[in-house]
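Progress narrative, Year 2. Work on histidine kinase from Paenibacillus aurantiacus advanced from sequence curation to structure prediction during this period.
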Amino acid sequence: MSQFLRRQWTRIIEMRMERKLLLVFLLLVTMPLTFISYFSYVNYAESTQRTAIRYSTNMLEGMMGRVDDYIEDMVNMTSVPAYQDDIKFNLSRSNAYYAQRKQIGDNGNAAAAPAFDQLLQIQRGIQGNVSFINNIKRGATSVYIFDLYGNAYSQAQSGGLRQNLADSYRAWESAASESGGEAVLIGTRKYVSTLNSEKYAFTVVRKIIDKALQPIGLIAVDADMTVIQDQIKTLDNVTQGQTVIVDKQGRIIYSADRSQMAADIAGDPMFASAAGDRGSFYGELAGERQLFIYMTSPNTEWKAIAAIPERALTKDSRVIRNVTLAATLATVALALLISTLVSFALTKPLRKMMQLMRTVQDGDFRAKFQVRYGDEIGQLGRQYNRMIARIEELIQDIFRSENRRREAEMHALQSQINPHFMYNTLETIRMAAELNDDVDAADMIQLLGKQLRYSISNVNEEVTLERELLHVSHYVQLLNRRYPNRFRLQTRIPPELLAYPMAKLLLQPLVENATLHGLDDAKPFMALDIEVRQKERYVEITVMDDGLGMEQETLERLRDKLTRGAPEREEGIGLINVNERIKLHWGQAYGIAIESEAGLFTAVTMRLPSMAVARVEQSDFGKSREERGGEAG
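Result:
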């Protein structure tokens, strides 16, 4: 891991300056902005959640308070018969009536049965009071008054009465008998109304006791579930969630989902998690993460549990997050643009100086740094210009001190271009003249004269590539007279390069070297190819033969000689001569390169300056290097 970190750190250290500046700018802008945005979003989300919990809890508390008030009103309604003598009187009459009927029924004496109009009077008396109780409080679905024999007195409302009153009475009477006269709250149950529709209601029941504290009947008040429905609907619209009310046994009192009404959810994890009087927790409901907020009524011990989808809680937070993210990205993009412009503006002078240094490395000391400002870059530029000027002065001093020696070496090197060729050629001419006494000797003498005139004339004379190629052609013609049809010369030169200016006697030594060291007697002839190519900054001239080639060891030794130069009378002197002349005239960036493979080929490539540079250099040809440098300065 440490090695990996070191490698990454090394990569950062070796990055270009503008990239380092860009990285620093981005880190300085992005990191604080990202941290601020992140913590702002987290704090806002947490604050939103706390606010939602507090607000929803307050709403739950208010809703349960209203439900408690509603139930308290129902309890108060069940206490009305205790203060209505008329209800107690008619219930006593009803009990006596049905007791008499039961006794008559047991004895079988039908003639002693009480009059039916007595029952009608009882019914009118009690139902009138039932209507009065119904009008006390809006929201009571139905009020039922029973005598001790389970006979019900009620008045139909818009929703109808219960069909199964006998079953309901038995459940209610059993619950009330254990209460000691107190009102009993019975959770939500489903029933079928006289209109044949399914209904749900929770009920408050209480015993009716006379003045002697003896039970004479039972009153039951069914709740109107629309009252609770309105309360919960208002809460759900605000929280965008779903609220249920359950009793302490885990049976649902109310749910917006009617299929869950009166269901037992005591084993549900949601109900188990809602421990204590109030609180909140997170859980899953219908495959979605929810925030559950609950509170317990101190009066009824019912729990109201509100399930709020987390997406509803974080809706505003997501908007803030998206806006913050968009603003952060826009700021980072703007910072990236500004950082890029600033970094490139700051490093542009350095890149310019690097280009100038590469130009100086190629041998051009005329490149100067333009100083515009007095900052550190400007001061560096001034020192750079002074350094280049001093280097150029030192070079000029060296050239002045060694110019004559160099020129003497050039003449000496040129004079070493294989004089044996001249002697052998003259001997061939002599032998041809003795044997033939015809035109062949004259032609060879003419070609030799052209060779001598071209070679012996002013060494510093400027020539074109076309003239140099013509000289090589004459040389190959002489070779073919000496060795009949052993050499075939082929040239590939773009027409626009025929006028390329160059120094004399650069090509002929390369061809001569190929014929002397590469001729393969096993082949009928040697192919000599001269190809000239124009590159972006160079002109390359390649002389290639298909002769003996060289072993790798010989090739490396020859390359080493070209690099360090060679003393007199060492083999390869022709190539070394040409290489030193090129470097002496145009600089170390130019010269000769050799490629070879034993038994296949040898290729010698001269790298010379491009056409434009060559014309400038050739215009100064013949001057000393310090003279050319002085004029350029």
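The first strand starts at residue 140 and ends at 147. The two ends are 56 Å apart (CA to CA).
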